[in-house]
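Researcher: Re-running this chain for the archive, since the previous output was lost when a drive failed. Same request as before.
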Amino acid sequence: MLRLAIRVRRADAELVLAELLELVPSGVEEVALGDSVEYAVYGAPGELPALPALRAAVGAAIVEVSTREIPDDWAERWREFHRPLVLDGAITVRPPWEPPGTTPIDVVIDPGQAFGTGAHATTRLCLELLLELEPLAAGPLLDLGCGSGVLGIVAARLGWTPVVAVDYDPASVQATGANAEANGVRLDVLQLDLRIDPLPDTPTVVANLLSPLLITWASRIGPVPPRRVIASGILLGEVDAVGRAFAIAGLDVVARRVRGEWAAVLLDQAPRAR
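Model: Regenerated structure tokens:
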């Protein structure tokens, strides 16, 4: 098994991650290294190139690229990397090889599909904000950029219905559908491009996307915005820009959560839009 690693300055990390996810929509491993961030993908020889150490340009960013062989027990150690996530004694999100949690909501996500089991800071921040919300009369919810379906599945278990899950990547659409079925919940899963396709109108939206996509979506929101939005996938330096984009669309930041270098915000309809 080979590990292909790309290391970049933290200031350029979002640009590089966006480019990588276009090439590897199934997701990448992220490791924080002080002033740098390392992204890694894994594959068998022949699937990944065995490159010498080199420097390359990704857009305006300079990255360091390297590959190395990893031990034969990598598959077992990979399982150890994916540990259950337990939030506020209310939700457990776990891989299928871990025993059931003792929380009221126990969600099983196969990390071999799409974007892991929900332990990444951006997903965790969304879940924390979602736990603080009351379903609007058990109303509809849109999971925009659903990945492996963690947020949509948890929302359905919390009482939102119907839940619509949308992603551009067909692998994510397939993974979300499979994970929803495994958890015994119904999601309407759609493959759509938020940059050009019309999106379902729902009063509540959870969007775990990178800032450029959040800003693009905000620019496409019609005259009647969602009642409230949880937006995550935002680097700390991008929070103000994302907030301004949603303010133009009629949504104001009313709460913020931070974990490491990532932030998530809760937005509500601005008074002028009510």
